[in-house]
Amino acid sequence: MEQVREAGFAGAESIERLYELLHATGMGPGWNKPEPSLWPLPKRTFVPAHWQYSLSRPAMDAAGRFVGTELAERRNLILFNPAAGDRYATARTMVAAYQMVKANETARSHRHSPNALRLVVDTRPGAYTVVEGKKIPMVPGDVLLTPNWCWHGHSNESDGNAYWIDFLDAPLVHLLGPMFFEPFPGGMERTEEVDESSPMRFPFAAVRARLDSMTPPGSKQVRLGPPYLDSMALFVTRLESGSTVVTERATDNSIFAVIEGGGRSIVEETEFEWRRGDVFVVPSWHKHTFRAAQTSYVLRVSDEPVMEKFNWRRQE
Ligand code: 1HN
């Protein structure tokens, strides 16, 4: 640094010397960067991927033999994207995870700055998520919201294991920095109050009824809300048996979870066959073709509100 001050930029005798001096003073030549900082179209860093419930359910059961919720905050399986270097995010801004809580077990309450929601896969009556001091029933197909900083814990008062899929914007919080987390004082937030009609719950029976009454036939979609999460938009689509639905490349990331039915998806060059309880990801700027083999109901969790907010929502 001293040397730089003495000689100074005025004395630089060559562009190589200028680069040395710039480097030594914490500056980089914008015209000669190691990597371009702008490019014409979104890069496809994250890759299409698929997780099968038929595999993850026995994986959760195995975890249940070794991991208690006394020890682990959550008994969950993180669906990390197979893209190079990624061990957490499912798509750039979102993470999905399978979770299991055993019969007569609880997963203690906490709150955090990431927004979360769950899609219930297999439960029996008596499985609850406790949000802000109220028990919300977890019925298969239901979507439950826990907006950021809401206390939430899980209490399985049924006689069977409860399985569901979590979605969080934690990777977006990691990118931006504002992470906060707090355990509930004393562990599980206990309550006797059951709130069947909580605004945080979207019962599948009602969503299905809305979709089934829509005309004309073809692909039908509803957006869940209000309330809406600030960072993630939730859509449930009914796909008709034998139908094909094509979605062009877009800037938003989508994570899909199959509520009911079965079919195939082609995401650019990657193809997978999905069924009930499966999760798959269509990352930003990937073309997606849906082929339903049966009448199917599919949840899509999208970071579209983020793209919309910053005027970055675009389709090819
Ligand atoms: C979390 O808090 C839950 O509260 C589930 O059930 C999954 C995945 C990553 C980070 C936090 C829950 C999670 C999570």
Please describe the structure with a list of short key phrases separated by commas or semicolons.
alpha+beta, Jelly Rolls, 6-stranded antiparallel beta sheet, 21 strands, binds 1-hydroxynaphthalene-2-carboxylic acid
Describe this structure in words.
With about 325 residues, the chain is α+β, with helices and mostly antiparallel strands. The chain contains six helices and 21 strands. The chain folds into three domains: about 30 residues, no CATH class; about 150 residues, Jelly Rolls (Sandwich), CATH 2.60.120; about 100 residues, Jelly Rolls (Sandwich). It is about 15% helix and about 35% strand. A six-stranded antiparallel sheet has the order 1-19-16-21-14-13. Strands 2-3-10-5-8-12 form a six-stranded antiparallel sheet. Strands 7-6-9-4-11 form a five-stranded antiparallel sheet, with no helix packed on it. Strand 17 and strand 18 form a beta hairpin. The termini are far apart. 1-hydroxynaphthalene-2-carboxylic acid binds next to strand 3 and strand 10.
